[in-house]
Amino acid sequence: MEADDIGGGGGGGGEEEFGFSRNYFLAKESGGPGKRSACKVSDIDVADEQELVAAMSDIRPKHEKEIAALRDGYRSLYGRWVFELRCGFGMLFYGFGSKKALLEDFASTALTDYSVVVINGYLPSINMKQVVLGLAQVLCDLLKTKRKTPAASVSKIKEPSVSQSLDELILFLNGPWAEEKDFFICIVVHNIDGPGLRDSDTQQCLARIAACSHARIIASIDHVNAPLLWDKKMVDTQYNWYWHHTPTFEPYKYEGMFFPLILAHGNTTQSAKTATIVLQSLTPNAQSVFRVLAEHQMAHPNEEGMPISSLYSTCRERFLVSSQVTLNSHLTEFKDHELVKMRKNPEGEDCLHIPLPTEALEKLLKDIA
Predict the structure, then answer these.
(1) How far apart are CA 284 and CA 292, in angstroms?
(2) What pTM does this model have?
(3) Region 63-87 average pLDDT
(4) Percent of the chain's residues with pLDDT above 70
């Protein structure tokens, strides 16, 4: 009896399954191979990105009191975090929500006795040679200003320059300059797993910096596969991570700004807005150099751009740069972020051109004023 019941159930299920499969293929055949949709992606009426951004900005944040209380709770841990840095650990923050505000608040309130350098890993591209050169220059200035080096070593300090290799600059960061062990630069890296830092060579470079005696890295990650960027040596020996689970539940306002919205198309206005955000992350001197370039372009709209020699002369007159090397470091940042393009004028000179119309440039200069 039991065998009959089982057999009957199996047969019924098989017939139903066969019937479903038969009907499915009959439906496919009745449609015919020639009946295809004529719709295209280009036919979709895509919204303007500015409209979507405006709509997103109107969304009121929720649970503000709870988020503020969570942030206050983390502030009570600042003393412990500083102690971990002094013990030689690198600090890695993970958890849901943007940690940009948290790390910047920690740096501005608890790391006032140290020099702090910020790297925005969420930017599309980052020049690591310029980053390491900047760190070496900060350390050099710190050693000369605070006089924490032995008298015999002061004369041995060589001013870091762009002509030095990456290995030489990292060697300088790891030099036996200071007598005190509690003497280091704090490097805050927002999104060390970001698109501009995600490749293997960049991570190896950051790991070497983290292993230097005069550097401590404070970083955040948000990608679920971020730990796959590192091998055991990098995690335990070079970065020497001390992991902190710090969910903030804050929106990824800045981190997501450079990712195009799927439901929108870009335009000139959006390009100008992106350029504004990039410029605001640069130093005031870099912004002033960009302003000189933009003002020249608006005054001479029919030219190919501003010759580099003319830009250097103007910036020297306004005390914005002290050498060609300093100007080149600013121009490298502009090129990396695609803020400027290179062109040749009829005389064969290299000229710098900002790929934005005059109206967008005017608005851009007002926004960074």
Answers:
(1) 13
(2) 0.60
(3) 93
(4) 77
Q: Nearest 5°: phi and psi at 241?
A: -65, 140
Instruction: Quote the DSSP letter at residue 61.
Output: P
Least Cα distance to 349 among 299, 310, 318, 295 occurs for: 310
8 Å CB contact between 273 and 115: no
In whole angstroms, give the CA distance from residue 131 to residue 207. 13
Three-class SS state of 326:
helix
For residue 130, which of 352, 328, 339, 338 has the smallest C-alpha distance? 328
In terms of DSSP H, where are the helices of 121-245? Answer: 128-146, 151-154, 166-173, 200-210, 232-233
Report the distance separating Cα 118 and Cα 190, nearest Å.
8
| C-alpha dist (Å) from residue 233 to 1, 71, 209 | 66, 33, 14
Are 160 and 326 in contact, with CB atoms under 8 Å apart? Answer: no
Confidence grade of residue 144 (pLDDT, cut at 50, 70, 90) = confident
d(CA 12, CA 364): 71
Which of 316, 344, 335, 302 minimizes the C-alpha distance to 126? Answer: 335
Tell me the pairing of strands 115-120 and 90-94.
Answer: unpaired
The residue count of the chain comes to: 369
Question: How many CB atoms sit inside 10 A of residue 133's CB?
Answer: 21
Residue 307: Cβ within 10 Å count:
17
pLDDT (0 to 100) of residue 2 = 44
Strands 215-220 and 185-190, sheet pairing: parallel
